[in-house]
Amino acid sequence: MKNIVILGSTGSIGKNTLEVARNLKDKFRVIGLSSNSRWELLSDQIEEFKPTYIALNDSKLVEKIKGRFPNNNVKVITGSNCLEEIVQKKEVDIVVSAVVGAVGLPAAIATLQQGKILALANKESLVMAGHIVMSLAKKNQILPVDSEHSAIFQSLQSGKPGEIKRVIITASGGPFYDYPREKLCDVSPAQALKHPTWQMGQKITIDSATLMNKALEIIEAKWLFDLKIEQIDVVIHPQSIIHSMVEFCDGSVIAQMGMPDMKVPIQYALTYPERKALSVKSFDLSSIGNLTFKKPDMEKFPALKLGYQAAREGGTIGAILNAANEVAVQAFLDGHIRFTEIVSYVEKMVNDHHFIKNPCLEDVLAADIWARQEIKNALFKRIN
Ligand code: NAD
Ligand code: MG
């Protein structure tokens, strides 16, 4: 029996993780939950899974949850360090990091320092500080939840690290892959939030439309699998059936496939190295018909170029790229900037920032704060 904590339990990955835990009650006990949204859903989760701990940063949520569970049978951890505190509880075996954004970094670090398994969906923590996160991780202490990285992790089991020629990360291309380039500046948040193959949270859905998600995944792959930039390729595969591939030195290419369903990589991260039964939509190639592939268009989707630049140059660029992107995506969702301006603003922040080659954690966090403030200033000037 393993004790798990889910950071971001009311989100898309969080809910899928609870579904996996619900189906494997004899293997997993949910002892901790955390969220900063949707208190009714969180209350239902508390009622069903009866966790020992809840971590809540939002004081309004604390009041509501304490009101709903007045008998103190759930311990509520509050304050800005609540995620780090909950992962450090001694009973915890596995932490599923399913929060969105930079808030995941300190909790990822605390999880690894405590020697616990980190099932990682929060790619932002690797994008910001992959060199720090990976230096703390023992072999297989971080298990990827991102579907592409789970696919690479599974495919890598066919060979040894020295035998890898390259990885090929697949991308659905998002809703605008075939959309006319000159009309991209006019797409609305509602259009951008319609992902063709995956149901996800808002931020990652917009990242998938700009292809910034793939940029973040290039950086994530570099750190997780210790790859050189020349070993990371991206291919557009609109059906999202092949979740990614590894080409070995003998020319063999191993792919992991399946219907798009995040429960598959989540469950594999939780049960690794074992596999357990999971009921998923049947895999019927004849009804899928065609699997198609295209070269990514870096001119139409400049986020990809930024992803390669950040992966190549390292240092503080990842933190800047991530923070600027978080703010720009929110500004687009709030109707303040155009779709194409998301990546333009990120690029400007990456170019303007004071680069540090080997940043410590404080440097990374300072770069994050700088980028947020700088882009907010730029947006403020624009809007007013
Ligand atoms: P989401 O927006 O649906 O959920 C985010 C969750 O994090 C919510 O429960 C929210 O309350 C919580 N949260 C946000 N800020 C918090 C804070 N400060 N403290 C505590 N909780 C906080 O997002 P999602 O789509 O589930 O994505 C989560 C992460 O997983 C992201 O890093 C994303 O890139 C990654 N990911 C998601 C998918 C997917 O299919 N959704 C696939 C691969 C990777
Ligand atoms: Mg992914």
Automatic annotation (TrEMBL):
Pathway: Isoprenoid biosynthesis; isopentenyl diphosphate biosynthesis via DXP pathway; isopentenyl diphosphate from 1-deoxy-D-xylulose 5-phosphate: step 1/6. Residues 4-130 form the 1-deoxy-D-xylulose 5-phosphate reductoisomerase N-terminal domain. Its cofactor is Mg(2+); Mn(2+). The keyword Transmembrane helix does not apply. It catalyses: 2-C-methyl-D-erythritol 4-phosphate + NADP(+) = 1-deoxy-D-xylulose 5-phosphate + NADPH + H(+). Its EC number is 1.1.1.267. Residues 142-225 form the 1-deoxy-D-xylulose 5-phosphate reductoisomerase C-terminal domain. Mn(2+) binds at residues 146, 148, 217. It is an enzyme of class 1 (oxidoreductase). Residues 257-373 form the DXP reductoisomerase C-terminal domain. GO terms for biological process: isopentenyl diphosphate biosynthetic process, methylerythritol 4-phosphate pathway involved in terpenoid biosynthetic process. InterPro entries: DXP_reductoisomerase, DXP_reductoisomerase_C, DXP_reductoisomerase_N, DXPR_C, DXPR_C_sf, NAD(P)-bd_dom_sf. Keywords: Isomerase, Isoprene biosynthesis, Magnesium, Manganese, Metal-binding, NADP, Oxidoreductase. NADPH binds at residues 10-13, 122, 124, 201. 1-deoxy-D-xylulose 5-phosphate binds at residues 123, 147-148, 172, 195, 208, 213-214, 217. The keyword Metal-binding applies. It holds the Pfam family DXPR_C. Catalyzes the NADPH-dependent rearrangement and reduction of 1-deoxy-D-xylulose-5-phosphate (DXP) to 2-C-methyl-D-erythritol 4-phosphate (MEP). Belongs to the DXR family. HAMAP family: DXP_reductoisom. This is 1-deoxy-D-xylulose 5-phosphate reductoisomerase. It comes from Candidatus Jettenia caeni. The lineage of its organism: Bacteria, Pseudomonadati, Planctomycetota, Candidatus Brocadiia, Candidatus Brocadiales.
